[in-house]
Amino acid sequence: MTTISREFIRRTQKHSGRSIRTGPLLAPAVGLLFAWMIVPLALTLWFSVQYYNLLEPLSAGFAGLDNYSYLITDDGLLAAVFRTLVILFAVLALSIGFGVVFALLFDVEFAGRGIARLLIIAPFFVMPTVTALIWKNLLMHPVNGLFAYLAKLVGLAPIDWFVQIPMTSIIIIVAWQWIPFATLILMTAMQSLDREQMEAARLDGSRGWSTFRHIILPHLLRPISVVVMIETIFLLAVFAEIQVTTSGGPGTATTTLTYFIYNKALLQWDVGAASAGGVFAIILANVVAAFLIRTVARNLDN
């Protein structure tokens, strides 16, 4: 072993020893993050086994699993979970589908490509509340909206989006927000595609769908997995778009799990039942996350 190698090993071990001693310095930050996560979770678990309705303060006490049994027997819970999953998978399909298309389009050189890229990504930086207000009042309004105006131009009756097709309206609004995110990730992934491999495939006679299926799509599987996992975390908690546009209606047509918990907590003032719903939401999120992590790991292994 050369003198340089021994010196390198000695310095590495020395720095390694120093990194171990930095534990006390990291402890406050790690402890704060740990408390930031554990304290709300612990309080949610505590309230979920308590009778805690702000409209009935005298009925407080230990409830055991009554709040959970109450939720399970509530038909609105399963319906809310179903709507949550519908929005999740519909938006994922739309964002990934359009994201792949836009990534392929913007991978081609054309005049104004930089400006076009900026415009396609811009909606992702608009706040959800503002997005919902724009779609509700400027685009989907049945009287003064742009879509109503275009329908009248061609002699069609305007659609009352949030009454006739409320779930479709929510999906469109949320997808409009998340398509730019998928486009950004996939467009970045396209930059790392091996151009020599593409040229070799073209010389071998590969065209169109064949090139996309055998070269581009396998290359995009990993970034697509990342998009799915990140979007899922946020799509399970969609709230602002529903609150601003439909308030969970008409009736309960757009009441998702998040809005269901909101109704229990802030409209019915039933903190115990809302906390039990929060625990149920945590379980659902972990189940979905575990499934997605296994899917991502499988793609990475391939």
SSE order and pairing:
Blueprint: H1 3-21, H2 23-48, E1 50-51, E2 61-62, H3 66-72, H4 75-105, H5 113-121, H6 128-139, H7 146-153, H8 161-164, H9 166-191, H10 195-203, H11 208-235, H12 240-245, H13 257-267, H14 271-301
Helix pairs in contact: 2-14, 3-14, 4-9, 4-11, 4-13, 9-11, 11-14, 13-14
Structure write-up:
The chain has helices at residues 3-21, 23-48, 66-72, 75-105, 113-121, 128-139, 146-153, 161-164, 166-191, 195-203, 208-235, 240-245, 257-267, 271-301; strands at residues 50-51, 61-62. It has a two-stranded antiparallel sheet with strand order 1-2. Helices cover 75% and strands 1% of the residues. The protein has a single domain (50-301), classed as MetI-like fold, CATH 1.10.3720.10. The longest helix has 31 residues, at 75-105. It has 302 residues and is mainly alpha-helical.
Mean pLDDT comes to 85
Order of helices and strands: HHEEHHHHHHHHHHHH
**Beta-sheet strand percentage?**
under 5%
The Cα radius of gyration reads 25 Å
Alpha-carbon distance between the termini? Answer: 39 Å
Main location: membrane
Keywords: Cell membrane, Membrane, Transmembrane, Transmembrane helix, Transport
Organism: Rhizobium multihospitium
Protein name: Sorbitol/mannitol transport system permease protein
